[in-house]
Amino acid sequence: MTELSHPEPPPEWTADAVLRDGTVVSIRPIEPSDRDALTAFHETLSSRSVYLRFFSAHPHLTEADLDYFTEVDNEQRVALVAVAEERIVGVGRFDVLDDASAEVAFVVTDAFQGRGLGALLLTRLVDIARSLGVERFVAEVLPANRRMLETFRHSGHPITERHSGDIVEVCFPLAR
Predict the structure, then answer these.
(1) Percent of the chain residues past pLDDT 90, beyond the cut
(2) What residue spans define the domains of the chain?
(3) Does residue 1 surpass a pLDDT of 50?
(4) How far is 115 from 120, CA to CA, in rounded Å?
(5) What totals of helices (H) and strands (E) does the chain contain, helices first?
(6) For 32-46, what is each residue's pLDDT tens digit?
(7) What letter does residue 19 receive in the DSSP assignment?
(8) CA nearest to 127, candidates 5, 9, 8, 6
(9) pLDDT surpasses 50 at 80
(10) What is the pTM of this model?
């Protein structure tokens, strides 16, 4: 594996945040050196959480997965990790699709779900995407992923939802 040279993310992409229960997490850009921590994080996810994120059973991250998830360019592909107790407890990312849109996704370890971490990751991703000129986020969500759908619905953005087969397509503008 060859590490590619990409722009360094600005320092303001890193911040500490307090969850609803008072737990402090550090949210920062993912790094190629996070491979082992990301593998450990993935192993903490229940099979249901994995299914809701990947739309299939995906019990282990492959080397190709780890390359894709940890080697971002901080322009067209951005990923953040939330760290608590010296381990990754959440991951949020977006991939630019075209001149105006990016696909957003995030997952939070089961023990940290329901504490507001998904909303914090989404807020940070919105701010970063805006700074890079992204105008709207899109996401594909399984209807059973009620927590993610609720995170989008309560984000403060006017979302549209379109049901397409077994997928809910969510779209919302990032304008303030």
Answers:
(1) 74
(2) 11-135
(3) no
(4) 10
(5) 5, 8
(6) 999 999 999 989 988
(7) -
(8) 9
(9) yes
(10) 0.91
DSSP 28-69: EE--GGGHHHHHHHHHHS-HHHHHHHHSS---S--HHHHHHH
SS3 76: coil
Give the H or E element holding residue 150: helix 146-153
Name the nearest CA neighbour of 68 among 93, 102, 37, 87: 93
Work out the average pLDDT over 130-153. Answer: 93
Amino acid, single-letter form, for residue 37: A
Q: How far apart are CA 68 and CA 5, in angstroms?
A: 15
CB atoms within 10 A of CB 152: 21
Q: How far apart are CA 142 and CA 36, in angstroms?
A: 28
| Closest to 80 measured CA to CA, from 13, 16, 136 | 13
What is the greatest pairwise CA distance in the chain? 41
Q: Which CATH superfamily is domain 11-135 in?
A: Gcn5-related N-acetyltransferase (GNAT) (3.40.630.30)
